[in-house]
Amino acid sequence: MRAALLQGSDAIAQAAIVAGCRFFAGYPMMPFTDLLECMARRLPAVDGVCINAESEIAGVNMTLGAAAAGARAGTGSCGQGIALMQETVAEAALNEVPFVLFNMARGQQDYFQATRGGGWGDYRTITLAPRDVVEAVEHTQLLFHLADKHRAPVCLYGDYLIAHTHMSVAIDAVDHGPLPAKDWALDGSLGGTGRSRQVWTWAMGKANAPGPEPDGHWRHIAAKFEAIAQVEARHEARHTDDAEAVVVSFGTTAPFVDHVVDELRSEGVRIGSFRPVSLWPFPAAALEAATAHASSVLVYEINAGQMIDDVRLSVTDRSVVRGIGGVSVDESGMRQGSLLGVAAIRQRIRRALDLEA
Amino acid sequence: MTTVPTSHPPTVPATKVAGTRAPLQLSEEHHLCPGCGHPVAWRILLEVISELGLAQRAIGVVGHGCYTNIVRLADIDFLQCLHGRAPAVATGVKRVQREAAVFTLQGDGDMASEGLAEVLHAAARAERITCIMLNNGVFGDTGGQMTAATLIGQRTKTSVEGRDPDRHGYPVPVADLVSRLAGTAYVARGAVNNAGSVAQTKRYLRRAFELQMQGAGFTFVEILTMCPTGWFVPTAEGPGYLVDVFEKVYPVGELDERS
């Protein structure tokens, strides 16, 4: 299609439908609300279903059911609502039901929630954090592919900037390659044949075909996420080859940081920037390489310090890692405050590098 | 293959009975207590699915309780889901597999306590599913604690002197609540305490599945089942206790039908 000027939420909705999403369920909560409205408007036209659920808990469980029945399915909220969904996200990770969770967050305070999760069990959640609407469209399609490829729930960490910003974007179906058949999905057709199906976190199997049971199944799940960690890390590094200082940021904060880093570069400062595109798996090896010559690693995140844990685990003790972001919320409590701005970022980087008092 | 009669305590040697395997049943081995009503409910459920020709269209969504083991024992597709959420999960399943016979199997702890919102909203949305609640008034699987459906005066491990309205509130009659909602096509409450009630409850299940497949709306069958272990009554007295105590508060019969 030709590029069109679209609101981010609508662009994501269209990208999801182009990717084959035919079921969506959610509960309104700003800034996720627009995505729910767009899905409610667009899904019926493709014989899809969008349910305005009675709660986030019901919404994510409807999505699990639709996905277990073979559909590409999605749900979402902002971090506050996704907190309610954590039990089901963990359940889907453990019973291997793939769907896409859209966190249209109010800010960057959901990093721990996205990367550590709040459910029980040895699971992780593939999480992509786009920098803008165009990348959110790419990630949406990629996430539906990754969910099916790995049979796991996956997460798009967007935010209000992506949800509400209009950008010119073309939404064309992207072929991410072949996927295994969904022969595990429930359709009832094998009942009475001795080969009926089962989706069960405990994987007990059938009386005529015992499953691996929890010990075997949960080892398999843990090994699967270990394998995913080796192959699905994504990142973007800029000016890091000779950088003495590297600034790490994620999501929509990164373009602001990149702008400041470009400015400082033009002023002769040997500084680079690094952005984990996947928050989990965190691109640890790439960050270690990108900071090989850096004596200073600065983490700019708009929270009290969450991603900095992963940065420290990645660069070990070769560089001094310092958090230079912080909690910053506007008067509504629903958007980020003054720390999301070029002036604040420039000042904090320059102070950290002793370029100003 | 052995079975233990449930009409009296197992003081006599077990009797070998032929031909007890229900349709779609993969094994006679189960972990349920002597005198439990759940295996009877399982059996009539599987008979109805089989007799209506739905074996290769049925998808069960099962909550957490003693009955969960049907997921292992029956030869139909199953999704074992989180506690209380089965009607929401079944909603997603049915909206995608529109020709399937989708049902939930839940206990009163699962449905009336943990998941009351999900079942009421599924009914209000007129989801074309059949929700089945096995009601024994206790959390059997965890050893006999009070649920939202526990009767006034009923002894449980968390109401040892009997459920007291002043301290524990009143039971939630899920079937009655569901019958008030416009999306509901059929509501019935049966029991499995004797041959007559088993036959009657089987007819209720059959009607619920028939109406589901006709697209009439949400269908609901509550089945009163014995839990002598959780009730602290002798096994042989379970069926009588069910009639004398449970059916006084939860009368059996068809509460509603709109086709």
Measured distance between first and last alpha carbons of chain A: 51 Å
In which range does the helix fraction of chain A lie? 25-40%
Beta-strand content estimate of chain B? 15-25%
Order of helices and strands of chain B: HEHEHEHHEEEHHEHEHHE
CATH topology (level 3) name of the largest domain in chain A: Rossmann fold
Strand-residue proportion of chain A: 15-25%
Query: What about the largest sheet of chain B?
Result: 7 strands, mixed
Number of strands of chain A: 17
Provide the residue-averaged pLDDT of chain B.
Answer: 94
- The chain-level structural class of chain A is alpha/beta
Strand order of the largest sheet of chain A: 3-2-4-5-7-6-15
Low-confidence stretches of chain A: none
Can you identify the CATH class of chain B? Alpha Beta
Quote the average pLDDT of chain A. 97
- In the CATH hierarchy, the architecture of chain B is 3-Layer(aba) Sandwich
Superfamily at the CATH H level of chain B? Thiamin diphosphate (ThDP)-binding fold, Pyr/PP domains
**Structural class by helix and strand composition of chain B:** alpha/beta
The SSE string of chain A, one letter per element, is EHEHEHEHEHEHEHEEEEHEEHEEHEHEH
Overview of the structural elements:
The complex is a heterodimer of chains A (357) and B (259). In chain A, helix 1 crosses helix 2, helix 3 packs parallel to helix 4 and helix 10 crosses helix 11. Chain A is built from twelve helices and 17 strands. With 357 residues, chain A is of the alpha/beta class. By secondary structure, chain B is an alpha/beta fold. Chain B has a single domain, classed as 3-Layer(aba) Sandwich (Rossmann fold), CATH 3.40.50.970. Helix content of chain B is 35%, strand content 18%. Chain B has a seven-stranded mixed beta sheet with strand order 2-1-3-4-8-7-9, sandwiched between helices. A two-stranded antiparallel ribbon of chain B has the order 5-6. In chain B, helix 1 packs across helix 8. The radius of gyration of chain B is 17 Å and the shape is globular. Chain B starts with 37 loop residues before the first helix and ends with a strand. The chains are: A alpha/beta (357), B alpha/beta (259). Chains A and B meet through strand 2, helix 3, helix 4, strand 9 and strand 10 of A and strand 1, helix 2, strand 2, helix 3 and helix 5 of B. Strand 9 of chain A pairs parallel with strand 2 of chain B, so a sheet runs across the interface.
